[in-house]
């Protein structure tokens, strides 16, 4: 069963009717409903186009959080071969909100790291909804360090509501772990490419998304704070998330204008969840292209380019 | 009763009584409630004489107490594009910014200066919590980069006093991008082999803690300072239980291995002198009162640089020789 978002209600009705008609026809012989069903399909297609043609920032947030959107694990399984997960921070625990390991992307060995949200109740709890603890960032640091020593490119897939705000996480130095992870990203002498595939939630995302090249899926979001959080602080009303989402400029399109990201990867009509295979394949092609742009650069050049990019970032505002 | 006693006299009285007792003569300690006399409070660097509670202090007041003879010079910070997102909540960001500038008399939430502490040349930066909660936007990022560049250029240690509610939401993603930007700045100082010391003050939270404020060679905090990534209220809402006493306070972090030291404000100057001199391979500082610099307190900037150069150029013995 497809999961419909709040703003897709009317679409759900039409698509549901078409499905019902076809089910009825399949049961009773000699009943021809194809004509009506086709008309409904057509109506649904137009509606989908209208809905997704111009998504508001708040709707994009909802699409980015869609439970059926492909997650990190789906990308790793489909795009990489010989994926060998590596676990633990050698200090405290293995954080299941962060996955990573050695893998091949079109035969080229790389280090792949990402946030995994899970896709059903039990896996979501196991993955802590993609909210990493310090161990997750420290595992990532360890893996990035390894990639750096063996000259392997680093590919990160970002999809997190944010770092986990818990008691233990704070006691074990959540902020220090995030700071060191960002620092490690900046010191890599190997090419690094990051793709924001869903939610890029604040510092928890930056810790992975600081890279030579950063791409975003068309309906993914990347923000300093969630629209709900921003609304409750600045508007003193969490229900003002639509306004907050608008003001924060968290869409891939705005971030591209601001020069924060390098590429927008188009999604199928109706969002990534409507064609997961197609979306994953497109992301794979883009990662390949972005890595190619970095081929042949020396260690020093990769570090210097990355630094320069961040030092200059935002110097022009939206006038870019 | 007549018009004079009913109206004129109270009016006159109110005029006079207002002049007799200015409002800002006494400050109430927000911890123990003791009324503190302003002159005494200033002398104590805004630390409560009764309970030792560290209150807010402006970057300028802090620097006046930190630097030799209270002299320092400002390092220029490149002004970023103002209000890059044309952000508006219930109020325009541009208006909030102007309001904060007017109220504080400062350009933005961070002040970068250079000068000498115990004849040790340093670059220092301090975040101002009273300016939009010290929040980190493009300007604060630029300030830290300018401080780092100045430190590298002059071969001086960088001392940073942090205080912030986090990233400046009104600059959206660009405020978040200050995390990698300021980390690049910290790395520049480290690569130059110079010390980077952070003094965390109340409160230091969010994206600020999760970037430059946690990357110091030495991490010092003021007593009682709240230092965290996620604030206590957010955590209580998430885990639905009461947090232990002193959670996320400086002493708690020290216990959990996140800090090197918790140091009283009045002792920070001497501690910073000791640390920076050792880390820079300089001889011990001279104890006691220092004679004023050769050119007097109003000396032009070049003299400070010359002294710095002389000290770093192996002629460090001169600083030792100026005792007595």
UniProtKB/TrEMBL annotation, chain A:
<dbReference type="InterPro" id="IPR001095">
    <property type="entry name" value="Acetyl_CoA_COase_a_su"/>
</dbReference>
<keyword id="KW-0547">Nucleotide-binding</keyword>
<comment type="subunit">
    <text>Acetyl-CoA carboxylase is a heterohexamer composed of biotin carboxyl carrier protein (AccB), biotin carboxylase (AccC) and two subunits each of ACCase subunit alpha (AccA) and ACCase subunit beta (AccD).</text>
</comment>
<feature type="domain" description="CoA carboxyltransferase C-terminal">
    <location>
        <begin position="39"/>
        <end position="293"/>
    </location>
</feature>
<keyword id="KW-0276">Fatty acid metabolism</keyword>
<keyword id="KW-0443">Lipid metabolism</keyword>
<protein>
    <recommendedName>
        <fullName>Acetyl-coenzyme A carboxylase carboxyl transferase subunit alpha</fullName>
        <ecNumber>2.1.3.15</ecNumber>
    </recommendedName>
</protein>
<keyword id="KW-0444">Lipid biosynthesis</keyword>
<dbReference type="Pfam" id="PF03255">
    <property type="entry name" value="ACCA"/>
</dbReference>
<comment type="function">
    <text>Component of the acetyl coenzyme A carboxylase (ACC) complex. First, biotin carboxylase catalyzes the carboxylation of biotin on its carrier protein (BCCP) and then the CO(2) group is transferred by the carboxyltransferase to acetyl-CoA to form malonyl-CoA.</text>
</comment>
<dbReference type="GO" id="GO:2001295">
    <property type="term" value="P:malonyl-CoA biosynthetic process"/>
</dbReference>
<dbReference type="InterPro" id="IPR011763">
    <property type="entry name" value="COA_CT_C"/>
</dbReference>
<keyword id="KW-0808">Transferase</keyword>
<keyword id="KW-0963">Cytoplasm</keyword>
<dbReference type="GO" id="GO:0016743">
    <property type="term" value="F:carboxyl- or carbamoyltransferase activity"/>
</dbReference>
<dbReference type="GO" id="GO:0009317">
    <property type="term" value="C:acetyl-CoA carboxylase complex"/>
</dbReference>
<dbReference type="InterPro" id="IPR029045">
    <property type="entry name" value="ClpP/crotonase-like_dom_sf"/>
</dbReference>
<dbReference type="GO" id="GO:0003989">
    <property type="term" value="F:acetyl-CoA carboxylase activity"/>
</dbReference>
<keyword id="KW-0175">Coiled coil</keyword>
<dbReference type="GO" id="GO:0006633">
    <property type="term" value="P:fatty acid biosynthetic process"/>
</dbReference>
<dbReference type="GO" id="GO:0005524">
    <property type="term" value="F:ATP binding"/>
</dbReference>
<comment type="similarity">
    <text>Belongs to the AccA family.</text>
</comment>
TrEMBL record, chain B:
<feature type="binding site">
    <location>
        <position position="32"/>
    </location>
    <ligand>
        <name>Zn(2+)</name>
    </ligand>
</feature>
<dbReference type="InterPro" id="IPR029045">
    <property type="entry name" value="ClpP/crotonase-like_dom_sf"/>
</dbReference>
<keyword id="KW-0808">Transferase</keyword>
<keyword id="KW-0067">ATP-binding</keyword>
<feature type="binding site">
    <location>
        <position position="29"/>
    </location>
    <ligand>
        <name>Zn(2+)</name>
    </ligand>
</feature>
<keyword id="KW-0479">Metal-binding</keyword>
<dbReference type="GO" id="GO:0006633">
    <property type="term" value="P:fatty acid biosynthetic process"/>
</dbReference>
<dbReference type="GO" id="GO:2001295">
    <property type="term" value="P:malonyl-CoA biosynthetic process"/>
</dbReference>
<keyword id="KW-0547">Nucleotide-binding</keyword>
<comment type="similarity">
    <text>Belongs to the AccD/PCCB family.</text>
</comment>
<dbReference type="GO" id="GO:0008270">
    <property type="term" value="F:zinc ion binding"/>
</dbReference>
<dbReference type="GO" id="GO:0005524">
    <property type="term" value="F:ATP binding"/>
</dbReference>
<dbReference type="GO" id="GO:0003989">
    <property type="term" value="F:acetyl-CoA carboxylase activity"/>
</dbReference>
<keyword id="KW-0862">Zinc</keyword>
<keyword id="KW-0276">Fatty acid metabolism</keyword>
<keyword id="KW-0444">Lipid biosynthesis</keyword>
<dbReference type="InterPro" id="IPR000438">
    <property type="entry name" value="Acetyl_CoA_COase_Trfase_b_su"/>
</dbReference>
<feature type="domain" description="CoA carboxyltransferase N-terminal">
    <location>
        <begin position="25"/>
        <end position="294"/>
    </location>
</feature>
<dbReference type="InterPro" id="IPR011762">
    <property type="entry name" value="COA_CT_N"/>
</dbReference>
<comment type="pathway">
    <text>Lipid metabolism; malonyl-CoA biosynthesis; malonyl-CoA from acetyl-CoA: step 1/1.</text>
</comment>
<feature type="binding site">
    <location>
        <position position="51"/>
    </location>
    <ligand>
        <name>Zn(2+)</name>
    </ligand>
</feature>
<dbReference type="Pfam" id="PF01039">
    <property type="entry name" value="Carboxyl_trans"/>
</dbReference>
């Amino acid at each position: 069963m497809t999961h419909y978002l709040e703003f897709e209600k009317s679409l759900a009705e039409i698509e549901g009717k078409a499905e019902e008609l076809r089910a009825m026809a399949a049961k009773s012989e000699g009943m021809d409903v194809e004509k009506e069903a086709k008309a409904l399909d057509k109506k649904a297609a137009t509606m989908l186009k209208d809905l997704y043609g111009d998504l508001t920032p708040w709707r994009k947030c909802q699409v980015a959080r869609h439970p059926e959107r492909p997650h990190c694990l789906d990308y790793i399984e489909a795009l990489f071969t010989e994926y060998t997960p590596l676990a633990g921070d050698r200090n405290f625990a293995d954080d299941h909100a962060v996955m990573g390991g050695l893998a091949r992307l079109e035969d080229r060995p790389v280090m792949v790291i990402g946030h995994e949200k899970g896709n059903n109740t039990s896996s979501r709890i196991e993955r802590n909804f993609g909210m990493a603890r310090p161990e997750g960032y420290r595992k990532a640091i360890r893996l990035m360090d390894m990639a750096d020593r063996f000259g392997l490119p680093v590919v990160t897939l970002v999809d997190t509501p944010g770092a986990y705000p818990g008691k233990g996480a704070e006691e074990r130095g959540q902020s220090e772990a995030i700071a060191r992870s960002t620092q490690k990203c900046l010191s890599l002498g190997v090419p690094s490419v990051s793709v924001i595939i869903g939610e890029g939630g604040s510092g928890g995302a930056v810790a992975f998304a600081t890279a030579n090249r950063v791409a975003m899926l068309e309906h993914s979001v990347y923000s300093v704070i969630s629209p709900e959080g921003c609304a409750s602080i600045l508007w003193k009303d969490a229900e003002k998330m639509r306004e907050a989402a608008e003001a924060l400029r968290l869409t891939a399109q705005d971030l591209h204008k601001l020069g924060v990201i390098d590429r927008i990867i188009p999604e199928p009509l109706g969002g990534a969840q409507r064609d997961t295979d197609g979306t994953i394949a497109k992301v794979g092609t883009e990662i390949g292209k972005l890595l190619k742009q970095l081929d042949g650069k020396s260690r020093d050049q990769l570090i210097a380019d990355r630094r320069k990019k961040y030092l200059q970032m935002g110097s022009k505002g939206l006038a870019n | 009763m007549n018009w004079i006693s009913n109206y004129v006299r109270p009016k006159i009285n109110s005029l006079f009584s207002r002049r007799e007792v200015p409002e800002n003569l006494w400050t109430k300690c927000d911890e123990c409630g003791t009324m503190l006399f302003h002159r005494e409070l200033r002398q104590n660097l805004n630390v409560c004489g009764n309970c030792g509670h560290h209150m807010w202090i402006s970057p300028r007041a802090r620097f006046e107490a930190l630097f030799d003879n209270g002299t320092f010079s400002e390092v220029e910070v490149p002004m970023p594009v103002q209000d890059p997102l044309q952000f508006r909540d219930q109020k325009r960001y541009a208006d909030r910014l102007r309001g904060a500038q007017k109220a504080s008399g400062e350009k933005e939430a961070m002040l970068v200066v250079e000068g000498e502490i115990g004849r040790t040349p340093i670059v220092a930066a301090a975040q101002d919590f009273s300016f939009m909660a010290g929040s980190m936007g493009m300007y604060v990022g630029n300030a830290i980069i300018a401080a780092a560049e100045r430190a590298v250029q002059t071969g001086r240690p960088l001392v940073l006093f942090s205080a912030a509610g986090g990233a400046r939401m009104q600059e959206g993603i660009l405020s978040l991008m200050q995390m990698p930007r300021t980390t690049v700045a910290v790395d520049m100082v480290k690569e130059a082999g110079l010390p980077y010391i952070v003094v965390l003050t109340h409160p230091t939270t969010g994206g600020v803690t999760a970037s430059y404020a946690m990357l110091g060679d030495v991490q010092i905090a003021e007593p009682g300072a709240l230092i965290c990534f996620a604030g206590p209220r957010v955590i209580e809402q998430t885990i639905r239980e009461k947090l232990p006493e002193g959670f996320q306070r400086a002493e708690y972090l020290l216990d959990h291995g996140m800090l090197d030291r918790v140091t009283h404000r009045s002792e920070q100057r001497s501690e910073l002198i000791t640390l920076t001199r050792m880390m820079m391979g300089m001889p011990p500082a001279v104890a006691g009162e220092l004679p004023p610099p050769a050119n007097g307190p109003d000396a032009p900037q070049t003299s400070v640089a010359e002294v710095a150069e002389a000290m770093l150029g192996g002629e460090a013995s001169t600083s030792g020789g100026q005792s007595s």
